TrEMBL record:
E.C. no: 3.2.1.-
Protein name (Swiss-Prot/TrEMBL): Glycoside hydrolase family 1 protein
Entry similarity comment: Belongs to the glycosyl hydrolase 1 family.
Species classification: Bacteria, Bacillati, Bacillota, Clostridia, Eubacteriales
Superkingdom of origin organism: Bacteria
């Protein structure tokens, strides 16, 4: 019998997570093309971001400057190193490498930028964890192909992977193919994940005409692209570890009514497990086939697709976890908000200022639920509290609420490890303040490092260490033992 583990294993990868489009800036520098994120206006938690097919001078586009990591990466990586990061999750902006997505040759200046970033990480022994596509497909692919609705994107993505795998094969070991690939199981994922132009008013959080058939077809193309990338990556470097990334939505039945229980399972299956069943096991699960049949969804597949999926199973499973929701078979219940998908309020939980319910124990449950199904290493690659921070007169930022949130989640991760879950990494979301994906705000901050910039884009961009910066440093130094 294996002996009982008492806490975070030696070599546990502590760190933080970001995405190119939300923090790099330099949107038109170094030969970069326009990405989907570059045509998104700012919004708030009550007004949606909008997609503007052409840039409008009267609009504000928060991702254009991000937090200027493009020019300040040395300063930022130094701060991550000071906290003791073992791993740093970042994404490569596809449009920096292939400005239009379908270009014949890659953009050398873009490749060089990431050479420099990886070199800087290496200097501090920080392991990069690279997301290949994080809500930032070249916008030309949306305009000219309607994004992932078109199977030709599989080849463009393959070419992109071939270039970055070869270029960074000696400096990057951990890769994730698509960020929150399961967002395409919800209308929100249409543009963000699928790079598909939604019909209607262009509002990101209020897709007027949902096209489920198109979303699932696009998702199939991403499954094929991901599987081909995994196979290719292993051929280029057999030591590569390539994972999937899912927005895990922990779902409770609101009551013990058996109908609520079945609804919760259906949501867990369709929103969470459909994608990872395909990416981890290499085949569509029965519940998905049934759903497609009952909803008249007809996925066009090519003859070889089953084989491609089987040959491209991922090495590990990663997910984002922020909150949980309830479902009920009865209508008219209080709704809650959340990451990618929403649900109903849970009377036992408190919520963030953006109404995302806070549920650390749900993380322990989710870790067990996922691990029991797949038995492969897991990483929590996004977790954190989006909150408003205040700078005191003496320049300090006392973000005890953030410390509290993270502490309780770390405690539950430790419990899950003791339960037997093979959890190998934890990267908190937005370890340095960055632009919110959902709302475009700067005010919704997740970081240990404060960035002086507001919702209108004003500010010096100076970096300030919050109280949580020193706290997380201690957590890492003690491998998760000292959490107070
Ligand atoms: C995840 C995304 O959905 O949640 C990130 O992978 C995003 O890109 C994060 O930033 C938090 O969401 P938001 O809307 O608060 O930025």
């Amino acid at each position: 019998m294996q002996h009982l583990i008492n806490g975070f294993p030696e070599g546990f990868l502590w760190g933080g997570a970001t995405a190119a489009n939300q923090f790099e800036g330099g949107y038109d520098e170094g030969g970069k093309g326009l990405s989907g994120a570059d045509v998104l206006t700012g919004g708030t938690h009550t007004t949606s971001r909008r997609i503007t097919p052409v840039l409008d001078q009267n609009e504000y586009y928060p991702n254009h400057e991000g937090i200027d990591f493009y020019h300040r990466y040395k300063e930022d990586i130094k701060l991550f190193a000071e906290m003791g990061f073992k791993v740093f999750r970042l994404s490569i902006a596809w449009a920096r490498i292939f400005p239009n997505g379908d270009d014949k040759e890659p953009n050398e200046e873009g490749l060089k930028f990431y050479d420099d970033v990886f070199k800087e990480l290496k200097k501090y022994d920080i392991e990069p964890l690279v997301t290949i596509s994080h809500y930032e497909a070249p916008f030309s692919l949306t305009k000219n192909y309607n994004g992932w609705a078109d199977r030709r994107l599989v080849d463009f993505f393959y070419r992109y992977c071939e270039v970055i795998f070869n270029r960074y094969k000696d400096v990057v070991k951990y890769w994730l193919t698509f960020n929150e690939i399961n967002c395409l199981t919800t209308p929100f994922g249409t543009f963000m994940g699928g790079a598909i132009m939604p019909k209607g008013n262009g509002e990101l959080n209020n897709i007027q005409f949902d096209d489920e058939q198109l979303r699932f077809q696009a998702l199939h193309h991403q499954f094929i692209a991901s599987a081909k990338a995994v196979k290719l990556g292993h051929e280029i470097n057999k030591d590569f570890k390539i994972g999937c990334m899912v927005a895990y939505m922990c779902t409770y039945p609101l009551t013990c009514n058996p109908d609520d229980l079945l609804l919760a399972q259906e949501k867990d299956n369709m929103n969470n497990f459909l994608c990872s069943d395909v990416q981890v096991r290499g085949e569509y699960p029965g519940f998905a086939k049934r759903y497609f049949r009952e909803h008249n969804i007809n996925i066009i597949m090519e003859e070889n697709d089953d084989k491609i999926l089987k040959e491209g199973c991922v090495d590990f499973y990663t997910f984002s976890y922020y909150s949980s929701n309830c479902v009920s078979a009865e209508g008219n219940k209080d709704k809650s908000k959340g990451n990618v998908s929403t649900g109903l309020k849970n009377p036992y939980l408190k919520a963030s200022a953006w109404d995302w319910q806070i549920d650390p124990k749900g993380l322990r449950w989710s870790l067990n639920n996922i691990y029991n199904r797949y038995r492969i290493p897991l990483m929590v690659v996004e977790n954190g509290l989006g909150a408003v921070d205040t700078i005191e007169e003496d320049g300090s930022i006392n973000d005890d609420y953030r410390i509290e949130y993270l502490r309780e989640h770390i405690k539950q991760m430790k419990e899950a490890i003791i339960d037997g879950v093979d959890l190998i990494a934890y990267t908190t979301w937005g370890c340095i303040d960055l632009v919110s994906a959902g709302t475009g705000e700067m005010k919704k901050r997740y970081g240990f490092i404060y960035v002086d910039k507001d919702n209108e884009g004003k500010g010096t961009l100076n970096r300030l260490k919050k109280k949580s910066f020193y706290w997380y440093k201690k957590v890492i130094a003690t491998n998760g033992e000292e959490l107070d």
